[in-house]
Amino acid sequence: MATIIDGKALAAKVKEQVRQEAASLPRRPGLAVILVGDDPASRVYVNSKRKDCEECGFYSEEFALPASTKQEELLTLVGKLNGREDIDGILVQLPLPSGLDERAALLAIDPGKDVDCFHPYNVGRLTIGEPAFQPCTPGGVMEMLREYRIDPAGKKCVVLGRSNIVGKPMALLLLHAHGTVTICHSRTPDLAAECAAADILVSAVGKTGLITADMVKEGAVVIDVAMNRNAAGKLCGDVCFDEVREKASFITPVPGGVGPMTRAMLMRNTLTAAKNHQR
Fold first, then answer.
1. Model confidence over 124-142: pLDDT tens digits?
2. How does pLDDT run across 8-59, given as a tens digit for each residue?
3. Contacts of 135 (CB under 8 A, 6+ apart)
4. Dihedral (C-alpha) 181, 183, 184, 190: value to the nearest 10 degrees?
5. What does the alpha-carbon distance between residue 15 and residue 79 come to, in Å, rounded to a whole number?
6. Active-site positions?
7. Can you list the domains of the chain with their CATH numbers?
8. Backbone φ, ψ for residue 26 (5° rounding)
């Protein structure tokens, strides 16, 4: 029976560490969040980030723009925030409404304020092992592995999904930790065999019930990054939790696993940005 990795408890621990460090700075860290349109899920995320800022003693400012916002207006706002000394991190909540260029919006953010680690400059630094910031979700996964004394060095690590937000940076962080990394995706032949060989399996596909017990090696560490809803509307991940838990050594639940850690790492990145700006 696997040990459940408690992301909620670890996130609280990380945020408390961040709060203590932030309290010692000459100026409290500041995070600006831009929300365009009225996507309900995005609103929930933005509200959660505001709460996290309060818990960590940060200054936070929200810019809620209508869905009719033009590209030039969005870029102008980002430019103004780049120039504000009280703002250390800028977050453009994705997805943006149709007609807006997400890539252009992310490119407009000062790399020193790119606390999501989406800017090509920061992605490049991550690639060569000199990250200014850790991508929030993969960074949260690595923090979980450290907390539970799971060392990727010399382990076969399999990452399902090749997104720029999770899959690719997750593979890079595991590689930097000396894991032997395989990235799997929709065109990978014999996905089950690849998964079954993994000592550490990270799934970030977004397909309910994708990972069954027969696809998991006895004693493997299973990290479920996905956030799906099943037919009954209940939150779940890619992993069939109850059956996989019987074979794995460690497993993350959904909800309460990777999700809280993603938010905690955003706070840590904002603290890092504030320290850099206040040197």
1. 999 999 988 999 999 999 9
2. 999 999 999 999 999 999 999 999 999 999 888 899 999 999 999 999 999 9
3. 116, 117, 118, 126, 165, 166, 169, 170, 173
4. -40
5. 29
6. 49, 93, 116
7. 27-110 (3.40.50.10860), 136-259 (3.40.50.720)
8. -60, -30
